[in-house]
Amino acid sequence: MKELEAIDKKYVLNTYARNYTNFKKGVNATLFDQDEKDYIDFTSGIGVVSVGHGNKRVSEAICNQVNNITHISNLYVIEPQALLAQKIQQLCGYDMAMFFANSGAEANEGAIKIARKYGQIKFDNKKYKVITLEHSFHGRTITTVKATGQKSMHKDDFSPYPDGFSFDAKIDDIYSSIDNETVAVMIELVQGEGGVQPFDKESIQKLASFLKEKEILLIVDEVQTGAYRTGEFLASNLYDIEPDIITMAKGIGGGVPIGIVLTKYKDILVPGDHGSTFGGNYLSTAAALEVCNILDDLKNSGKLDETIIYFEEKLKTFYENHKDIFISSVGLGLMRGLRVKDSDTLNSIIKNANKNGVLVLKAGKNTLRFLPPLTITKKEIDEGFKRLEKAVC
Ligand SMILES: *Cc1c(COP(=O)(O)O)cnc(C)c1O
Question: Average pLDDT of 130-138?
Fold first, then answer.
């Protein structure tokens, strides 16, 4: 343990405030460390392991694929990629085609490129400006950092950043921020990293129809909300809107790196405009296709909705038992948060929770965040909250 920590500290760059628990095994929403101590996982690796750890259907799909072909290249048709695109189109119900990348930030880069080219070729004047919201999060590349509405992330250390982004609007400010060069508005429907904050349906629908009328693209970043996290395949489905561009990543790969840009503008990009060596390869798309099948079954059987209701009830009880610590309960589906009265208390809850065998996350400055696997069982939920009770006492 100490030895592993020393190796990590010596050879891996210090970009995370790491916890040195060494997990050796995972079964659904339960993890085991090297001493076989078990932990209930209310994080699913920041919303990634949507179908649980060690999922047999996913591991079988991956093994079958990599025992055969792992990677050829996008110069040849890739069967699981085409089938995954078809499946995602069916699940979201939008008339869209997609591009495959490897991460959320990369998917957002693709979305911005599509929007920029649209702004270049569709109008008499060049339109290139993208408006994003305060407290948003869109990734860690230079461009997506600039798009992220958190000033603290726009460090001078990495400047200069690309032009054409305004990143601190509130929803109602968007209307007055738009000018003749605005090409797109990019939003999350439930802000994840910013504090698990959902927007209300009416204001999103109003914005969507306003943008449509002005011929400004609506990009919805569903990197965290996608793949049934909010109860529907996309949060856009739940909000009953039809964006122009949607990005996905995190939960759709079940732990395998993947990013996806979907758009109804199927002819904007032409060969040579965009690409990715690894994007959409046999490994990631075979895995994501099986994740989609599993989650589709989970939704159709009614089990996902049942789990959401059950988790909601347990969270509500926990919240009401501790009104001295928590200010409010926020979020949707299995993307939930409790606002904590101050950030010191939040940090100590997360530490204590870990000690008591339950993993939870932080979002924004003062939100205790829950992103359990969508396959979490009632027993695991019960046990997780039992341990959380101990952690806050
Ligand atoms: C996590 C996240 C990203 C960045 O995804 P990476 O895979 O880390 O690049 C972008 N947008 C949202 C909404 C996210 O939650």
Answer: 97
